């Protein structure tokens, strides 16, 4: 079953669940709309990898909004965003822990032979395919900067 099929099936289940499935249903609908819009833009049918990219983008949007609403002291909006993020996480691959990210970064730095902050772009370029959809890009960047002494 593809990820898009799973979203459709889960949407049906959420619709039948009435009140308990409201947040889940709205998030699934938003995600499906984002996927459909991206497919229309690119004029292709998305594979699971491309769907994961869209899901990761949606997750990033919510993470960034969460920070802003926490700073603005808006607890009700923060709670709603966290609930949405939980639903999206169900469809993303298992997320990498910080330790796993550090190990990947270390391996990549050694493999590329990165010397310092000037090689940040090379390291990030090599890491991106390995972490796409599996780790927060901001955290990966932070770990790379830390290891390169930037």
UniProtKB/TrEMBL annotation:
<protein>
    <recommendedName>
        <fullName>GatB/YqeY domain-containing protein</fullName>
    </recommendedName>
</protein>
<dbReference type="InterPro" id="IPR042184">
    <property type="entry name" value="YqeY/Aim41_N"/>
</dbReference>
<dbReference type="InterPro" id="IPR019004">
    <property type="entry name" value="YqeY/Aim41"/>
</dbReference>
<dbReference type="Pfam" id="PF09424">
    <property type="entry name" value="YqeY"/>
</dbReference>
<dbReference type="InterPro" id="IPR003789">
    <property type="entry name" value="Asn/Gln_tRNA_amidoTrase-B-like"/>
</dbReference>
<dbReference type="InterPro" id="IPR023168">
    <property type="entry name" value="GatB_Yqey_C_2"/>
</dbReference>
<dbReference type="GO" id="GO:0016884">
    <property type="term" value="F:carbon-nitrogen ligase activity, with glutamine as amido-N-donor"/>
</dbReference>
């Amino acid at each position: 079953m593809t990820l898009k099929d799973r979203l459709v099936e889960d949407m049906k289940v959420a619709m039948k669940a009435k009140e308990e499935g409201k947040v889940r249903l709205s998030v699934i609908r938003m995600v499906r709309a984002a996927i459909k819009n991206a497919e229309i833009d690119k004029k292709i049918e998305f594979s699971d990898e491309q769907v994961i990219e869209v899901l990761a983008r949606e997750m990033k949007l919510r993470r960034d909004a969460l920070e802003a609403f926490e700073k603005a002291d808006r607890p009700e909006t923060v709670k709603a965003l966290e609930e949405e993020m939980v639903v999206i996480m169900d469809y993303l691959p298992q997320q990498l822990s910080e330790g796993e990210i550090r190990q990947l970064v270390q391996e990549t730095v050694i493999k590329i032979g990165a010397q310092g902050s000037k090689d940040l772009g090379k390291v990030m370029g090599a890491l991106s395919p390995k972490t796409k959809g599996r780790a927060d890009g901001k955290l990966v960047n932070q770990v790379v900067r830390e290891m390169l002494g930037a």
